[in-house]
Amino acid sequence: MYLQVNNASTYCYTGGKPFDAAKPTVVFIHGVLNDHSVWILQSRYLAHHGWNVLAVDLPGHCKSEGEAPASVEEAADFVAALLDAAGVQKAALVGHSWG
User: Fold this and answer.
1) What is d(CA 72, CA 74) in angstroms, rounded to the nearest whole number?
2) Would the pTM of this model clear 0.85, i.e. be above it?
C-alpha cells in the first residue's frame, strides 16, 4: 500500500491483508540499508491474527520516495507523519538497529 507522507510516496507492506484503521495497528521500522522485507514473517503473522500492519520502507529506501532520514529524530517525525497519513491515532512500534 502506498501513502503520501511529507509529499512523497511511501510504501507500507500490510502483511497481505487490507488496511483497516479500526484494528489495533503495529508499525515495523527497519534499519539502515534494509526495507520492509526484514519484517515479512512477523508482519504477515500479525496481519493474519487481528492486527493492522504497516511495515514501512523509510524514505529513500526500496519502494519509498524522498530523502533518507539523517537522524533518529527525523525518522521519528516521519513515523508520526506516517500515522497521520494512515489515519491511525495509536500504534505499537517495533524496530531494530537504526529503526
Assistant:
1) 5
2) yes
Q: How far is CA 1 from each of CA 34, 59, 66, rounded to the nearest angstrom?
A: 18, 15, 16
CA distances in angstroms from 25 to 7, 14, 30, 66, listed in the order given? 23, 10, 16, 24
> Cα torsion at 43, 44, 48, 53 (round to 10°)?
30
Q: How far apart are CA 13 and CA 30, in angstroms?
A: 12
Q: Report pLDDT digits (tens) over 12-30.
A: 999 999 998 789 999 999 9
- CATH at residue 34: 3.40.50.1820
Which percentage of the chain shows pLDDT scores above 90?
89
Residue 64 in grid coordinates: 519509498
* Parent domain of 65: 2-95
Q: How far is CA 65 from CA 3, 22, 29, in A?
A: 11, 27, 16
Work out how many domains the chain is built from and give that number.
1
